[in-house]
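INTERNAL AUDIT FORM
Audit reference: QA-55
Scope: verify that the stored structure record matches its stored sequence.
Auditor: D.O.
Record contents follow.
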Amino acid sequence: MKKFLLIAAAASLLLAGCKQPTSEEVLAGFQADLVAWEAEYSESAKQVRSDATLDAAQKSEKLEALEDDIITKLKDTGRKLLAKYYADTLVAPAVLGEVAYYMDDDELSALFAKMPETVKADKFVSRMIESTAARQGTAVGQKFTDFTVDHVAGVDKAGNPIYEKKSLSDFVGKGKVMLVDFWSPWCPPCKAEIPNIKAVWEKYHGDDFDVLSVAVWEESRRMDWHNTIDTAKVYDMRWLQLNNGHQEPASLYGIDGIPHMILFDKDGTILKRGDDLRGEKTAKAVAEVLGR
């Protein structure tokens, strides 16, 4: 009997050692990692910024390397967790929310294909599935997807808006290369990108090239067409405009963050989009397409 009890006790200890962590424990561990990585970056970045032996360019390079290192840790850990807990209704949505931005659409689609309906029903996951499918349908090489907005062309004597139905197809696929900028008047990064867009427009607009800015999500920050029109004037946005866009244009192109630019060929084929059209890369892309 004593021998049996010893064997049973040993088996119990072995099982306890192999016990799988709960969903709550897994998520708590991941969140603790996020906090630790942020603290690690902050401390290292502080040391770099205070290092008098480094010039501005060297500091910028080191800070970028530190950020890349943290992002790599986030991606690697997130991918491992999603590979194991893709069916977990607590872990999968939370981890996906942190790493989805760093995963390409093919990788996301493969992940969604494995997920059970219980996870897909999560509001965030459902939105990611829709936006990923939209991006794949509007990827480089695809023809443009049309949309129509109630553009505010002006106001009447009483100050009421004069609405005018305007579509993307009024501008894209009409024989000009078109740079389309999705933006909003409340968005600081959008405003930061305006000088780059303006420089490209001033240099290249003409018979074979133009720029169109499409305002989206204005209402998400309690703004409306007034703010869009006023901001465009303040920033001297003299190129083509569509305001009052709301949700549909961004949803159709799977845009999760702005500014987001898409470069369309003369026939409406998508040539470049997203990160390939930010800062100096925009002018370079336009010059290459136009051959000048």
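Auditor finding: record pair retrieved intact. The radius of gyration is 25 Å.
Action required: none
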